[in-house]
Every structure is written in structure tokens, then in C-alpha cells.
Specification:
By secondary structure, the chain is an all-beta fold. The chain is 0% helix and 62% strand. It is built from no helices and six strands.
Length: 68
């Protein structure tokens, strides 16, 4: 699994973006493909990267450390 940071998260829609420390691009993710739904900007997470019809996205997003 890759470790990264939540850059943006819209709790109402259940979607957000996560960025890996070595990448300048953020990957989209959905709470459908996450382990939990209580994310906020700055949280540290682990995730997998998978490709699909709409392109690459973060899957199995799991909270490691919440932004205090």
C-alpha cells in the first residue's frame, strides 16, 4: 500500500483527492472504495492505485492518522 495525504474531501458527496508524497498529482477516490468515510484535508492515509474506465484512482483508502 502507498501512503499519502488527503488534499480535498467533500463529505456530502463522499469523494475526494489523495496525493502521494512523491507525486505532484492528486488521485480521486470515493468512499465506496474506502475503508471508512470520516476523512478531512491533511489526514494521512494508505491506499492502492487501480485503473478503470475513468482512469486511475485510489482504492481501499484507509485512515492512518487524522489531521488534528
Amino acid at each position: 500500500m502507498i501512503q499519502g495525504t488527503i488534499t480535498r474531501f467533500n463529505a456530502r458527496r463522499g469523494v475526494g483527492f489523495v496525493r502521494h508524497a512523491r507525486s505532484e498529482h492528486a488521485l480521486p477516490f470515493s468512499t465506496r472504495n474506502a475503508q471508512g468515510s470520516d476523512f478531512s484535508g491533511g489526514d494521512t492515509v494508505q491506499f492502492d492505485v487501480r485503473g478503470g474506465k475513468a482512469g486511475i484512482a485510489a482504492h481501499n483508502v484507509r485512515l492512518i492518522r487524522a489531521n488534528s
